[in-house]
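An instance as discussed:

___
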Amino acid sequence: MKVALQNIQTPIPKTRFDLWYIVRKMLHDEECEEVIEQMKELPISTAETLRGIDRSYRNSMIKWVPQYNTSSWKWLYYRIWKWAKIANDDNWHFEIQGFKDAPQYTEYNYKDEGHYDWHQDCGGEGIDHRKISMSLILEECKEGGELEIKGGKDNTLVELNKGDAVFFPSWMLHRVKPVLAGHRISLVSWISGQPYK
């Protein structure tokens, strides 16, 4: 029996912009410790926003992961890209191209009640290429420091343990709540594409 090709319809993938994607143990404990150890040699600076330093809004210290063509860091870029692509294929279907920004290593200290209030990762000057954001826990704090994502009027705590990562559209409002005990270390990254038109 012949089927006319013009009658065959390709299903359009369902897109859910309100979803995020969690990868449990994206990095194993040993890999988290390896990243922390390698980052110790790099310079640290106070985190800023597009408007500069404002510790009441964002209070953390940051370092930048070396470029992907540095042999000791290629594996990390490959791992992030692999899971970002899976998350994108399963949820959003953005046109993505790769990394324009290096991943950011971020430390939140309980003594300063380290935190980062509600924000988006795209839309401002110089960051309009960001399509997918990732947050990965390298070291958990004892209390506080939760990642929270806003969906409409609801705020959802994203429960992440050491080595877990979450991927989400870069326009989603999110925050890191104040660290109340211990030390929180995370790795954040952004997958880029052509700016929205």
